[in-house]
Give the backbone structure.
Amino acid sequence: MKITTVDSVTYGVADLALAKRFWTDFGLALEDDGERHLLFSALDASTVEVRLADDPALPPAFEARPGVRETTFGVETQDDLDAIAAELARDRDVGIDGDGTLHCLDPLGIPIAFRVSRCRTVTAPDPEFNMPGRIGRLNARGERYDSARPMEMTHVVYMIPDTGVEVDFYVGRLGFRISDAYPGRGYFLRGGASNNHHNLFLLNPGGTGDRFGFHHLAFEVANIHELFGGGLNMTRKGWKTMLGPGRHPISSCYFWYFLNPCGGGAEYDFDSDVVDDDWVAGEFEQTPETFAEWCLAAGMEESLLYKGVQTGETIEDG
Ligand SMILES: [Fe+2]
């Protein structure tokens, strides 16, 4: 059950052209540009697929809003895939398509899939940060990013009404591990062979109904400068911030989320925790402070300085 990655996610949308513009601006590479199908990749070869919402190739929609219609987790070997197929077939339908990918529904009806991972390990450029006593960049100006090029797809997030049944399934049946938790409410889960702090976060937001479903998809970028450069580029292109920039205490990362016309949010992350068997899982109370150490609520769109940068005016001119 050696799940290593989120290998791919598939969206069902009404407007392919809008989806193409969003993901291209976000920094994914367009690999297939069909009339009814788009395929994008991050640097690690993880993929985002986009299909028209009525495409029969999609699993049935499990929520009324647009969003991710299926999440595909990567495993190390065919033996791992066979073990997952045998485990899941004990109590649910498991489809196997032509390329060997397994498809099924989780206990709440969320479509998931599994395949031998097609992702590759990517290595960020050496950090060129100057810190007292640690010179990373001598006689050279710091790098500026006009846009981002996400390196790895790291996690998906769902809002759900029942974490118990889901954690039993993902941990007990599929070998995910709990990296951190809001006990009874939220679980940061990583694949059994993953070093990402989480590949899947399941949160019960409380209440009923309209908040349940896909929430966001996250990518790691190379450094903090790329995170801000990517976020500013998205803002210049007119995409709205969902939340950020800011920093999460749990997983330690800097973040910036954008509202995605494909559904939910798309998140840039940097400096997320990397963990192994020695990681000690924490339990936290779910509060604004455990969610964000700090963050801007609505990006930098309304920033006076940012507007000055956009128009070429100076603060004094404004
Ligand atoms: Fe996230």
User: Anything to note?
Assistant: The radius of gyration is 20 Å. The chain has one domain: 3-120+150-295.
